[in-house]
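Bumping my old thread because nobody answered last time. Still need a sequence for this structure:
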């Protein structure tokens, strides 16, 4: 994939707050912006020269967006797999369908992280009562039970005071596939933006410190820390 020059159009699959901020950056670099989102009041709409109001599962609408753009960028992970597969015939999608397949499901995501050596809190995948019973035996202390798909901003999750309550929490979420995570005490939460080119070059950016209120991200600060060792560890 060659460099996409300024003046080209970037298509955003999702027009939330992240899309709005990214669209402003794209505009400042001379790119046009088209956005697809089911919400007619999506924050990025005001930055886009064209807005397609359509579901993230509307494969035909995703293809229409791809036909107009030099590249597509998913802003949210809940994008139709069929739409992604069809879109690549018209424009590259970055990140691609293989990445979205992992992050669309918390169980797949955690299993991928564990296989690749990332440090993560102990967890268990819950698909039936037996899984919930085993999780109650292996996890310790307060836990969080989260649906594997669909939840965000505190939705689709239940906090338990004890692993003994995991089964009840799982049932309260509709007996859906879930992940039970052992709670940990956090000194702070840092996010690191990583960018990779199609040919494999990687760049990391300064860590952002995140502040949550009632389980929802309220604001972030960049730079989040001034400790060189911590910055190096966070950036990998």
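Sorry it took so long. Here it is:
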């Amino acid at each position: 994939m060659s460099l996409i020059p300024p003046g080209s159009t970037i298509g955003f699959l999702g027009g939330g707050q992240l899309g709005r901020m990214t669209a402003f950056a794209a505009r400042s670099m001379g790119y046009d912006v088209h956005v697809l989102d089911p919400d007619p009041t999506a924050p990025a709409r005001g930055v886009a020269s064209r807005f397609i109001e359509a579901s993230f599962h509307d494969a035909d609408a995703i293809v229409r967006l791809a036909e107009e753009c030099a590249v597509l960028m998913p802003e949210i992970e809940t994008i139709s797999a069929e739409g992604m597969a069809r879109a690549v015939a018209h424009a590259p999608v970055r990140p691609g369908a293989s990445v979205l397949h992992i992050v669309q499901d918390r169980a797949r995501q955690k299993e991928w992280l564990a296989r690749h050596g990332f440090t993560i809190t102990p967890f268990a995948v819950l698909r039936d009562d037996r899984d919930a019973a085993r999780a109650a035996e292996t996890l310790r202390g307060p836990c969080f039970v989260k649906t594997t798909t669909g939840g965000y901003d505190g939705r689709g999750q239940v906090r338990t005071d004890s692993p003994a309550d995991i089964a009840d929490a799982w049932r309260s979420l509709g007996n859906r596939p879930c992940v039970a995570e052992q709670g940990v005490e956090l000194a702070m939460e840092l996010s690191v933006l990583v960018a990779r080119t199609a040919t494999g070059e990687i760049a990391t950016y300064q860590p952002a410190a995140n502040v949550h209120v009632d389980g929802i991200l309220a604001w972030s600060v960049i730079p989040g820390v001034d400790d060189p060792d911590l910055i190096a560890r966070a950036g990998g």
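The radius of gyration is 20 Å. Let me know if any region looks off to you.
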